[in-house]
Amino acid sequence: MTEPALVVPEETEVSAKATRRRFSAKEKLRILRLADDCTQVGELGALLRREGIYSSHLANWRRARDAGELSSGSSKKRGPRPIAFDVRDRKKIAELERAVAKAEARAKRAEALVELQKKVSELLGIQLQNNDEVT
After folding, report:
1. Is the pTM of the predicted complex or chain greater than 0.90?
2. Which 3 state secondary structure label does DSSP give 122?
3. What local confidence, expressed as pLDDT, does residue 134 receive?
């Protein structure tokens, strides 16, 4: 009688923290092509088990493929989309900045005039009416 062959399990490395699998656009397209080729009963389920994915992945990837998001080289970046300014917006911003600068300069001049009036009244000994006393 022959002795049964010993099966030695492969060593697997276990990481401290599980990481989520990420599929590149190329991988997604490959799996979608395989899924589209499945015609027999049970083939699609076998494919999903073999690849370790869910049917919801296929649905999302098909939607992305149909929208053109899985085309080669196109990677969708996360985060808010940058706002492109219109030329009219830039003109309006510049106009508003000039108006603010002009108003600030006017306010500065008015404050300087008030200070000058206070000094003149002190020199001449004239009592100015206080804003707090006005009702």
Report:
1. no
2. helix
3. 47
